[in-house]
Amino acid sequence: MLDRNNELKELAIKEIEMHRETVERDPYRPAFHLMPPVGLLNDPNGFIQWKGTYHVFFQWMPFKTEHGAKFWGHYTSKDLVNWELAPIALTPGDWYDKNGCYSGSAVVHDNKMKLFYTGNVKDENGNRETYQCVAESEDGIHFDKKGVVVELPEGYTPHFRDPKVWKHLDKWYMVIGTQDLSEEGRIVLYESSDLREWTFKGDVTASGQEPIGDLGYMWECPDLFELDGKDILLFSPQGLEGNGYLYQNVYQTGYLSGELDYASGKMSHGAFTELDRGFEFYAPQTTLDENGRRLVIGWMGVPEQGEEHHPTIAHKWIHILTIPRELHYEGNQLFQRPAAELEAMRHSDITKNVSLSNERKEWSELNGAVYELLVQLNKVEETFSVTIRNNATMTYDATKSVLTFKRKSFVNGEEETRSCLIESVNELRFYVDSSSIEVFVNDGKEVFTSRFFPEEYNESLVFEADGHSTFQVTKWLLK
Ligand code: FRU
Q: Which residues are catalytic?
């Protein structure tokens, strides 16, 4: 009998081969972001560095550009810049994961890499079941599934998933994103001394608790780590109402900072803060690399947020991951900065010192589709803006202290915006890659992450000022 996992693997490989050219011909293909070889990619999973090699796995549906029974695809890199597609890591071919090897994480123990993930199961009536599972590898490339290690405890619905595992002193811990029976989001904690037997410790925190108040009906993709003297709980809550500039996407991502009491499993923490201000950022995962850096990668997408309108679907693929970023906690907030390794992609730099007064300006040598652009602002009297490829505009309005990212919607072509309040802007660093823009503001204090789908032949870059603005701009081509 042909093993179901091998069968699925072979079918997925065929799918990659069948659509390779269609995918490669897409002008919206990124030059330096991770994308699926075919089909749909969502959350980054199992982010880890082991024996010098970085591993990023990803939620993957090879057979269509919609969600479904997910595989774990796999990329590896020595330098966070050059990535290689590795063999498929996990296939949903067992009774406990037959409707998807859902999100999870990786650790190394006893010279083996272990993947913890959620086995998603729908019974014959369509009811959901959930199993936290483990798979092991000696080489970080070929994985053997070892089955279920945690079953659904009482008090939670089967929306119970996305195990993130880490070591603290001599014990292992696992956080899981959940929904309780009254449909409030929660994060639960487990403890283990051997990575096989897990003890339920209870809720780390929950929607409804002070000082966060009501924070949605389901919390996905938790990550708990120590950074610069604080414990940070990063997660993606669902069910928040938009509130001014906050919570404008269909689902959000943000964090709590404070202290986890490992004995009781409870975390004392402050208010919830959104991590990103752009249109597409969700389900990020961090890792502590071999240099002691806390790196993060996110999915540059949001579930159910216009996904079926992405133009790349015509080329048989959808979604990308963000660039790898370094996290820091400074002055009561997280900062995200592009991983320093990305500087190796730079070449052919151009610098200009500019002064604009109530005018627009464009220099054809700054045009492009794949580049890094650094704008250092000395002075903004009223408003300053940068428009990329006649589609997306970043505007700082100094009279209101509001920073706004505007793009043409890929659903209906109309302009839509995301904004945040910020007292002054002295630096905007753009990573532009064919169909994505990541903007790091004031050295990562705020970040706007979004997709955009400009006209293929428009590669313009336009600067504009109302009142007087002076700035220096540096542009590098990348790769
Ligand atoms: C987040 C998520 C996770 C789940 C996975 C399934 O985007 O919904 O909670 O494990 O995607 O692909």
A: 43
The residues, ordered by sequence, that sit 6+ positions from 453 with a Cβ below 8 Å of its Cβ are 28, 310, 311, 391, 408, 410, 435
CA–centroid distance, residue 372 to ligand 1 (Å) = 31
Nearest residue CA, atom 6 of ligand 1?
A: 102
- Is the C-beta atom of 178 inside 6 A of ligand 1? no
Q: Do domains 2-338 and 344-478 have the same CATH topology?
A: no
- Is any ligand 1 atom within 6 A of the Cβ of residue 438? no
- Residues 310-339: pLDDT tens digits? 999 999 999 999 999 999 999 999 999 999
pLDDT at 479: 87
Spatial separation of the C-alpha atoms in residues 141 and 53, rounded to whole Å:
11
pTM of the predicted model as reported, rounded to 2 decimal places = 0.98
The alpha carbon of 102 and the centre of ligand 1 are apart by a number of angstroms equal to: 6
Q: Is 343 left (phi over 0), alpha (psi -120 to 50) or beta?
A: alpha
Domain assignments of the chain as residue spans, ordered by start? 2-338, 344-478
The protein residue whose alpha carbon is closest to atom 8 in ligand 1 is 220
Nearest CA to 215 out of 234, 240, 197 is that of 240
**With 60 as the cut, is the pLDDT of residue 347 above it?**
yes
Return the ligand 1 atom nearest residue 162 CA. 10
pLDDT single digits (tens) 37-86: 999 999 999 999 999 999 999 999 999 999 999 999 999 999 999 999 99
Ligand 1 and 97: CB distance under 6 A:
no
Ligand 1 atom with the shortest distance to the CA of 303: 7
Atom of ligand 1 nearest to the CA of 299: 7
Q: Quick one: which of 294, 256, 265 has its CA closest to 189?
A: 265
Q: How far is the CA of 70 from the centre of ligand 1 (A)?
A: 9
What's the topology of domain 344-478?
Answer: Jelly Rolls (2.60.120)
**Domain 2-338 in CATH 2.115.10.20:** yes
Query: Going by C-beta distance under 8 Å and a sequence separation of 6 or more, which residues neighbour residue 257?
Result: 230, 231, 232, 233, 269, 270, 329, 332, 334
* CA dist., res. 259 & res. 293, Å (int): 20
